[in-house]
Amino acid sequence: MKKRVNFLEYLETDVALKILMFLNNPADLIRTSAVSRFWRNFVIANGILKQLCLTKFPQLSKNSGIVELKDKEMDNLYVESGSGTELAILERDHKLYASLLKYLFNSKESPTEFMLSDISAPSTDHDLIESIYDTLTPVRLTHWSSKGHSDHNASETLLYKLNASISIVTEINIRPYEAFHRAKLGFCSAKSVRFRMGHQDSQGNFVCTYTSPEFPMNQFERIPQFKLPGPVLCIGGFLQIELLGMVHRAGDGLFYVGINYVYVKGILLQPTFNIVILEPSGEFLLYYQPEYQPRTNAVAKKA
């Protein structure tokens, strides 16, 4: 039988890596590692899937180590900086990043809607009946409203917690409150919106690790959909919504913004993945438990 020839063997490593990194589709790179044993070893030894993950998810650059949980036992694990052969660590990393890339692809093709937990709003018009908690369910009669502002350029922020410490977020939808004023209905929306994701530090302060572009808010759309430029890895599970500017002027002459419902689309990665934030650096340990599959949905809970 004629011996097969791998063209990678005839290329300098740097050249071969540059060629393979043009395959920015996760599925293509995973298929590449299945061509032959040589190709698989080359992909694993050079951490190609890890490099692609870092390109797609810059937030992973703060990962200080990987913990793989075996047989569902917390005390039976491998740590990147601990024991284990170099090959075993490379193969483990290959599986982990292949799994992350698979969920990245799924988040684009079939994102799941999941709910949030409320954390805080800097101002509320009526604390008991118009709180941020009222934005967690799609009930039209409930909503959150800001306090009145004399300046139409005033801004408000809402802070939520996702029901997973690590997830892939692709889209955020906001239903503005529809108010009756001067014999007609109008949306109490913001002029524009911006999203930040991150974690809370030991003092309870929000630490941002991702900031989206600013999106204009359509003043005549019931549920504006804000698709992020690309899937975002939310590490820490916190979402901050910045409502920039106000368009609704009430009978008291002040400007208000009101939100009826907020929900997120993407994929929750727990319990396959989990994270532990390391203070004060903000780096994190990434836990990987391949025996479990991520949840397909989540139930909102009050924080």
Question: Please, could you describe this protein's structure?
Answer:
Residues 14-53 form the F-box domain. InterPro entries: At4g00755-like (IPR055336), F-box-like_dom_sf (IPR036047), F-box_dom (IPR001810). This is F-box domain-containing protein. Pfam families: F-box-like (PF12937). The protein is an alpha+beta fold. It is built from 5 helices and 19 strands. The strands form 5 sheets. Strands 4, 6, 10, 11, 12 and 14 form a 6-stranded antiparallel beta sheet that branches. Strands 3, 5, 7, 13 and 17 form a 5-stranded antiparallel beta sheet that branches. Helices cover 19% and strands 39% of the residues. It has helices spanning 13-20, 26-32, 37-45, 48-56, 86-109; strands at residues 63-70, 73-79, 112-114, 116-120, 144-145, 155-162, 166-176, 178-181, 184-187, 190-200, 206-211, 215-216, 225-235, 238-246, 248-249, 255-256, 258-268, 273-278, 283-288. It has 2 domains: 7-109, Up-down Bundle (Monooxygenase); 112-268, Galactose-binding domain-like (Jelly Rolls), CATH 2.60.120.260.
Kindly state the number of beta strands. Answer: 19
Query: So what's the overall shape?
Result: elongated
Report the major sheet: 6 strands, antiparallel
CATH fold-level topology of the largest domain: Jelly Rolls
Which CATH architecture of the largest domain?
A: Sandwich
Percent of residues in helices: 10-25%
Count of helix runs? 5
Please indicate the count of domains: 2
Low-confidence segments, given as residue ranges, are 71-83, 297-303
Return the average pLDDT rounded to an integer: 81
The end-to-end span amounts to: 66 Å
Structural class: alpha+beta
- State the CATH class of the largest domain: Mainly Beta
CATH level 4 superfamily of the largest domain: Galactose-binding domain-like
Rg computed from alpha carbons, rounded to a whole number of angstroms: 23 Å
Strand content: 35-45%
Q: What is the N-to-C order of secondary-structure elements (H for helix, E for strand)? A: HHHHEEHEEEEEEEEEEEEEEEEE
Domain F-box: 14-53
InterPro entries: At4g00755-like, F-box-like_dom_sf, F-box_dom
Organism: Penstemon smallii
Protein name: F-box domain-containing protein
